[in-house]
Each structure stands twice: as structure tokens, then as C-alpha cells.
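Sample intake sheet
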Amino acid sequence: MPVFPSSRRLDAIAWQRLFQGLFLSLALLATACSPQSAIARAAPESLAPLVKQVLPAVVNIAVTETVSGSDALGELPPELRDTPLGREFRRRFGNKREQVAGAGSGFIIDPSGIIVTNNHVVDHADKIVVSLTDGRQLPATVLGRDELTDVAVIKVRTADPLPSVPWGDSRKTEVGDWIMAAGNPFGLGGSVSVGIISAEGRDLGSGPFDNFLQLDAPINPGNSGGPVFNMAGQVIGVSSVIVSPTGASVGIGFAIPSEAVSRTVAQLLAKGSIARGWLGVSVEDRDDGVTIATLDHSGPAAKAGIKAGDVVIAINGEKIDSSRGLIRTVAVVPPGNVVRITIRRQGHEIEIPVDVGRRPADPQAG
């Protein structure tokens, strides 16, 4: 509360100080009362309503894979293969076939039974069984999968509509936002954990499209493919990786952002596979920017007139600040479309149109 001077007569300086104090007090009061300028959003009293809302759409995925003894032989060290020990191993196990079981998580995005999970959960499965929260177990088939983004889409058949959850926009999330992860840790089923987004844009070196959300909510083996929700019950990520010296959660987990997953899912549902854009270049991050190191002389960039040493500034007006950013930007362009690539060459900026090609199997191609 401002203190007024005791003198009845105030000189100009006193009046100025008085009004400055009043203005500052009112500004601070307005700031404290404004919800938009709050320093931190309080945690919800209970997540029970959110859990009841979304958990029916979270599923457990059991997979069975047939492994032959010949697969195991490939894991023998080369120096043991022609030894008595190696020959005995082949005699005992060479023709043996075993069923190996695995488990993961997923979530229903359409009442017809369309489910999203990780590719690594189902990529070698001979049999997939989905368990719903109501106790039903349904066989599932793979509609499409993508190894580079670690996303797969599977489907179960049922006469009744299934509960589903909507996508959220991971581009609107911020470090510090509350999240809830759900899934099937250690095969226990129907589990949730709570935390915050602790970092964004993590590159783990697992592929050219790494752009993970880092979470401190506990996720464990079996959580793979499970959804990560915001507090509105929207999926903003898919649990995929943990970093741990023990194999269990130590508070560092990673989720694929929904912005990337939803786009991949849409393409898999439409075509069953992903067609990615390709320029036919290799790029490097240098002091002067993202530089073209080499070109495939039969590739789209070379045909358009791009040269080694050119520095890429933007694609379709979108600033490019890293080689990985360039690869991701080009990859989402459908082959056959034209992109405008702005380059710097000998101190001059040039815009070159390029007909985007289809990305080959080489995971490092740009």
C-alpha cells in the first residue's frame, strides 16, 4: 500500500514519485491477477478424471515370434563356429524352432479398431494379440509400418465401436508442461505415470528423423508404443525409448512427437508405406551454415543446378539451420513436388526450384 507524504503541500517531484508508486502498484496487482502471465500453472488436484477418460483407449499388445536355431547360430562369435563347442551347438540347436513372446503398448485412434504402436513392437511378429481394458483379447493385423520413424499401425476387428483418443499438437507443447504416460510396463497392463516434458528436440542418433520429446514420467519396458497425453486428454507423443543403466526407468524417457507420428500414420493408412522426398545430396553443418558436401550427379539437386559448396539457407521460405533439419524438411515433401531452395553461392543468394525425388533405402540419404 503506497504511503502518502504528511505535508499537505506536495512539490512537483513529490507528485511525480507518488504517481510512479501508484502506477507500479497497480501494474504489479494487474500482473498478479492476470492468468495469462502466471509464472506457473498449478498441478491438477487429481488425474483420476483424465485416467477414466483416456485409459479405455490404451491397449496391451502381446506378440509371438518364431525363432529358429539357425538364427541363434548367427550370434556365435566367429572364432567359435568351427570349434568342438560350435559343432555341438549346431547339433543341439541348429534345427530347433522356438516361440518368443514380447509385449508392448498401443492406443486406439479410430472406433473401428485402428491402433498405433511402435514398429519395434510388431516388426517381427508372427502373431499379435491386443488386450482391451474390458478384458477382451482380439487378434490384430499390421496395416503398415515405418522403420525410420518407429511407427506402426495395426487393426483389430470388432462388431462394437471401440473407445478412441484424439491427437494433440506436439508443436504447441513446452518444456515444463505436465504429461501423463500410459501403457503396459513389464506386462502389468493399464498403468499410468505422471511427469513433465523435460526437454524437446532430442537427437539420440537412432535415425535421420530423431526429434524426441524427453520426459521425466517413468516409462519402462512394455511402455513402448503407449500414448503420452497432455492434460486435455490428447496424444502429444508415443513412448519409444528409455535411457537407463539398469533397463528400468531412471527418469529419462523419450517419446516421438505426435506431429511426426500422426503424419506417418495418415500415410500408412492411405498407402501402407511411406514415400519420402529426396534431393540426392550429402550435407554438413559448418560455421557458415548447412553446406552441400557432395551430390549424386543423377539426383534431383544436381539436375537443378545445385553445386557442392552451396550453403542452403531456406526451403520454401522456411529457414534451414541444421543438416538434420534439411533432411526432415525434404523428407515430408511428396516425391514429384517442386521445392524452392534458397542457397548462398559466392556471397549471393539464389533461389533454385528442384523436382523432389523418391528417397532410396539408404537411411543417410538427403
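Comment: Residues 277-358 form a domain with the Pdz3 Domain fold (CATH 2.30.42.10). DSSP finds eight helices and 20 strands in the chain.
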